[in-house]
Structure formats: structure tokens, C-alpha cells
Amino acid sequence: MWDDLERPPLRVESLRRGLVVPNGPLARLDVVSETGSTNEDLGAAAAEGAPDRSVLVAEYQSAGRGRVGRRWTVPARSALLFSVLLRPDGVPGQHRCWLSLITGVALASAVSEVAGVGARLKWPNDLLLGAGQRKAAGILAEVVGGSVVVGVGLNVTLREAELPVPQATSLAIEGASTTDRDTLLRAILRGLVAVDRDWRAAGGDAEACGLREQYLRLCATIGQSVRVELPGGAALLGTAVDVDRDGRLVVRDGGGAEHAVSAGDVVHVRPAPR
Questions:
Q1: DSSP-derived secondary structure letter, 8
Q2: Label partner for 188 (CA 20 to 30 A): which of 68, 83, 116, 141?
Q3: How far apart are CA 159 and CA 163, in angstroms?
Q4: Residue 270, φ and ψ in degrees, nearest 5
């Protein structure tokens, strides 16, 4: 598990010096060699009073989860696997779904700026890379009491033969200018806290703080013909036309009616026109 010299371990003490108070924006950062799920572990820590902006990183996850219970398992040290505990006190509950989208904005911005790979977002939780818009990362936000735990899995050095599905990719496959996980993690976490701080200062108003505009600029789903698989088994077909102030995807059906969707699996039926 640990014999791949092209995949060095994270430099924990260096990360802490740069990211944890007083030098950085985080309350706590822990790195473990292996766990089942960072979201589950940090959720348990949240219930025991872990502070806002605590981060847990794993070099390997044996039971990583995506949305609707999907498994997310990759070779050790080939990805960034981490969860962030956020306690946005004072932000109304209906705005908190933006925390997943905030994480997406930070992730896409860091990948574009640090790794030099064009990144887009598929609502609500996927990072897409390259001309083929293949998935390189997933985001899973879970409510724990009055807090939210947001988990991220970003494929960094996965090779083609290691990809779990043909629709997946990694930074290395897409020709990233760097696959240094320390550098990437620093950029993602600093960006996440910066966007989150502005959003909280605006009382969770994504329009007022510019977050909604940022997200729409990065979102590959807008303009797409989509099929949204809704909770309960129903499906909505139409064109994705907007993301509203509450972070919901707005889909216009064939009859012209618009539907605001807060949860569901989105399938891009065809590419948006360029």
C-alpha cells in the first residue's frame, strides 16, 4: 500500500504550520494514514464539540462515500480525501445548501489556478476536467446537528488503469502542471475558507457576496439538456437555466414551466452549445 514512490505522503507538520491558526484559517488539521470515511469520523467529532473549520485528511479510505451511498475508493495517496467541519452560526438553514457549492467553487478555482487544468462544476457536487468533462472529484455535504461536514475526494495521480469508471479522470491524466498534494490542499482549503467567510458575512446571501455569480460562471450544467433523477424515483427532463439564491437548480421543462430542484442526480443529456 505504501510502496509507490511517485505518491509521497502529505507533509503534515508543514501543512499545520501554514494552515492552522495563528498562521492560517483553520482551527485544526489532522491527517490519518487510513480510515473508513473522513465524513463519518469528522461527523462524530462534530457531535463531541469539535471546533468550526476543523479538517480531517486521510491518505486512504476503505469506505469512502459519495452521494446516495456510492462508494469512492482509490489507491493510497493517489487522491486528496478530506472533510471540513463548518459551523455557520447565524446563517438561515435554507441557505446552508450553498456549503457544498462553496466547496465546489474553491475546488475548481484551485485546480484551475494551481494545476493549470480547466475545471467546471456539475450541479450539485462534481468537478469536471478537460474537453471530455470527465469527473475528477466529488463533494458530499452532510448535516450533523447544527453543523455541516463537507467531504471531498479529488483524483490527483490516478492512472487510466486505476480509474473506477470510464467517465472518471485525474489531474495527472489531464496534464496538470503540478500534482503536489500539499500545494493543492493548501490552495483548496484557503480558498474554501475565504469564500465561506464572505458568504457568512453576507448572512448566507449568495447574491450579495458574489458567490452565486462565481458559481454560475463555473457551472457546466447551465444551458444543458438534463435529466434530474429526483428522490423517490421520479425524473425531470428539461434544460438547466439557473441556480437560484438558495442554491437550487432551476430546470425548464418542455412546456416552459420552471422547477427549482434542491436535491437529485443530474445527467447531462448533451453538451451545452459553445
A1: P
A2: 68
A3: 7
A4: -150, 155
H helix or E strand, kind and range, residue 104: helix 98-115
Q: How far apart are CA 89 and CA 113, in angstroms?
A: 31
Residues 6+ apart with CB under 8 A from 64: 37, 38, 71, 72, 73, 74, 81, 151, 153
- Beta carbons within 10 angstroms of residue 72's beta carbon: 20
For the stretch 89-145, pLDDT in tens is 999 999 999 999 999 999 999 999 999 999 999 999 999 999 889 999 999 999 999
Query: What are the domain boundaries of the chain?
Result: 12-216, 222-270
Say if pTM beats, i.e. exceeds, 0.70: yes
Backbone CA torsion sign across 201, 203, 209, 211:
positive
The three cell numbers of residue 102 are: 462553496
Rounded Cα–Cα distance for residues 34 and 236 (Å):
39
E strand or H helix at 136: strand 134-144
Q: How far apart are CA 51 and CA 133, in angstroms?
A: 36
Quickly name the fold that domain 12-216 has.
BirA Bifunctional Protein; domain 2 (3.30.930)
Query: What does the DSSP assignment read for 159-219?
Result: -GGG-SSTTB--TTTTT-S---HHHHHHHHHHHHHHHHHHHHHTTT-TTTTTHHHHHHHHB
Q: Is 75 exposed, middle or buried (0-12, 13-18, 19+ CB in 10 A)?
A: middle
**Closest to 77 (Cα-Cα) out of 151, 19, 158, 17:** 158
CATH topology of domain 222-270: SH3 type barrels. (2.30.30)
User: In 3-state terms, what secondary structure has residue 26?
Assistant: strand
